[in-house]
Write a structure and sequence with these properties.
By secondary structure, this protein is α+β, with helices and mostly antiparallel strands. Helices cover about 50% and strands about 5% of the residues. Strands 7-10-12-11 form a 4-stranded mixed beta sheet. The protein is elongated and about 85 Å long. The termini are far apart.
Length: about 600
């Protein structure tokens, strides 16, 4: 009996057939590996910002909520620069009539201008979350690319180093409200161009490329640019100290390239820097509030609040605030970093990196060195804090340099372990992988904690304010805009800064005198302080005629058109009763209490 075999669904080659073309085998090419790494980094950034993406307009990082409103205001300013031709480096739409020196603040023009289409279509809140997401992923991807192409032989090593540089505890802390600080995607290329100059055969061309990178970074964050320059200088000095013969061949191309960079970048930045240091509302030196921000020594051994093993309550006295957790490596990573230095101590580059990281870790302790919030002695930063440029540095952020050094040490360790060709290579790789897991798992990134914030009043979103506020008038909120009340800045940002506001959250010279030391906010306002106290305590004071006259004088100085108090403002009733003592009864319009003060403010003194 004949046996019939079923016809196969997919025919294969006949065993009797001769050799034919074989199907191409899919394999991990370098390009595919790169794309996979970039994809993983982007997914990690989306994971970190996932809770913000649920509702960008009404959610904000829970650990602090002032700076996102400031950044959104600056993003709206970029829209006005592009679409309305306004000055990029100064504005009087905030802190009217004195205005704000935007070059002396962090106006992030190099980020805000490319984001203009998203800001116009979806609003500054969406642009803010986009920048945070791209800042984390882009920084990690940039370090990965630079390490993979120029520094290490194995892409795994580059991925580990890039991952830590992009998702370290310090980066996660700043992701709460500092997209300008976490947008470090130009830094790897600046660092590489500086190092490449030491052996360049075309120093003029390389100096031009470096100047363009420096100029772009200056419009993202000047402080990070200064840190990069300092770190490169210390690292090169550490190399020369160990191998002095390198200086003989390196000084000429390095000097030529840096001179070209200084001339070109100086020309491109001449006017912006003039505005920053000598323009209206320029200041010199930081506010005393932040000048002595430093890391506690124990912060290097704690875990960041926004990591898997973090505990924000335990960290409360180890950093100036949750966004400034610029160390927080944890015990395991700190020990691993020391172990890597000991293991690879014969390598000159590792020793130079270790020296660089240690120097800036010490400087990050600030003027007063502390251990678990107990002051020990005066730190070396006390000798440098009054020097030009350094007087505008927040010392705790030197820990960001140490963070990059640790990331590079991790990359070197993995690269050396995977490059071994001895019989012990399996053991060394296993130990390296176990050490990485032990050190990095406790500080693995977690989604940012979020909280809801008040919605922009319908009075603003429905454009009802346009019936009252003219082009040269202001909308005065209750309480006044400031560091503790940035909601009015979000109101203005939602309208592309169509109306002006007095006050705000920014850095300016004390008492509005150009050239004085910096402080947060504009000129002191007696009525502003009074309303802030009522908002905090809920107690309605009894006001006298002097206070009424002072309030009217301030309203005239601001050219106020309306005074606005949202109905859902905390302690709205005491605030309403306080303002009614000053300018009379309020009326409700949509979801705000409204005082039309145009008749009062038009009566100028002496008329």
């Amino acid at each position: 009996m004949a046996v019939v075999t079923p016809e196969p669904l997919v025919r294969g080659p006949s065993p009797d057939a001769g050799p034919g073309p074989s199907a191409p085998r899919w394999r991990w090419t370098p390009r595919r590996i790169d794309l996979a790494v970039y994809g993983v980094l982007l997914l990690a950034a989306l994971w970190v910002t996932s809770r913000l993406w649920v509702d960008p307009a009404d959610r904000v990082a829970a650990l602090y909520s002032s700076d996102p409103a400031q950044v959104q205001y600056f993003l709206a300013h970029s829209v006005r620069v592009v679409l309305h031709g306004e000055l990029p480096f100064y504005t009087d739409r905030m802190n009217y009539p004195d205005g704000v020196n935007l070059m002396a603040n962090t106006a992030i023009l190099a980020l805000g201008i490319p984001m203009v289409p998203i800001t116009v279509l979806f609003g500054p809140a969406v642009s803010f979350v986009t920048l945070v997401t791209l800042g984390l992923a882009g920084t990690a991807a940039a370090w990965y690319r630079m390490l993979a192409r120029h520094v290490v032989r194995h892409r795994l090593a580059a991925a580990v180093g890039g991952w830590f540089c992009g998702f370290s505890p310090a980066m996660l802390a700043h992701a709460n409200w500092h997209p300008n600080i976490i947008s470090q995607f130009l830094l790897p290329f600046i660092v590489w161009r500086v190092l490449a100059l030491t052996r360049s055969t075309r120093p003029v061309r390389d100096g031009v490329l470096l100047a363009l990178l420096v100029t772009a970074q200056a419009f993202i964050n000047e402080e990070i640019l200064l840190f990069t320059a300092l770190a490169c200088g210390v690292f090169l000095l550490a190399v020369v100290v160990q191998q002095r013969h390198r200086w003989a061949t390196a000084w000429r191309p390095l000097g030529t390239g840096l001179a070209v960079c200084a001339v070109l970048a100086g020309a491109l930045l001449a006017y912006p820097l003039r505005v920053q240091f000598a323009g209206p509302m320029a200041y010199h030196g930081l506010s005393d509030t932040v000048r002595d921000y430093g890391n506690d020594i124990s912060a290097f051994f704690a875990q960041g609040s926004t990591t898997l093993g973090g505990n924000e309550r335990a960290n409360v006295n180890l950093a100036p605030n949750y966004s400034e957790e610029n160390a927080f490596f944890g015990w395991s990573l700190s020990l691993l970093a020391v172990g890597i230095v000991v293991w690879l101590r014969r390598e000159m580059l590792v020793r130079a990196l270790a020296a660089t990281g240690l120097i800036f870790a010490v400087l990050s302790l600030g003027e007063r060195v502390t251990w678990w919030d107990r002051e020990l002695f005066t730190g070396p930063w006390d000798l440098l804090v009054r020097l030009p440029l350094l007087d505008a540095v927040v010392p705790t952020r030197f820990g960001l340099i140490t963070t990059v050094v640790v990331g590079l040490l991790l990359a070197f360790a993995v690269d050396r372990a995977w490059s071994l060709r001895t019989a012990e290579r399996r053991t060394v790789r296993t130990l390296t992988a176990a050490g990485l897991a032990f050190a990095l798992l406790p500080i693995a990134p977690m989604p940012l904690q979020v909280t809801t914030r008040p919605a922009v009043p319908e009075f603003i979103t429905a454009d009802r304010w346009r019936q009252y506020v003219g082009p040269d008038q202001t909308l005065v909120s209750v309480p006044l805009p400031g560091m503790g009340n940035t909601d009015p800045m979000r109101w203005a940002a939602s309208t592309d800064l169509a109306f002006r506001i007095p006050g705000g959250y920014f850095l300016a010279p004390r008492n509005g005198v150009t050239g004085d030391q910096g402080r947060f906010g504009g000129r002191p306002s007696g009525i502003g302080e009074l309303l802030a106290e009522v908002a905090a305590t809920g107690r309605t004071p009894e006001l006298d005629d002097r206070q009424r006259r002072r309030f009217l004088d301030e309203l005239r100085h601001w050219r106020a058109a309306v005074v606005v108090l949202p109905l859902d403002q905390p302690n709205a009733e005491p605030l309403r009763r306080t303002v009614e003592q000053l300018v009379g009864p309020a009326r409700q319009e949509l979801d705000v209490w409204l005082w039309d003060v145009r008749a009062l403010t038009s009566q100028q003194s002496g008329q």
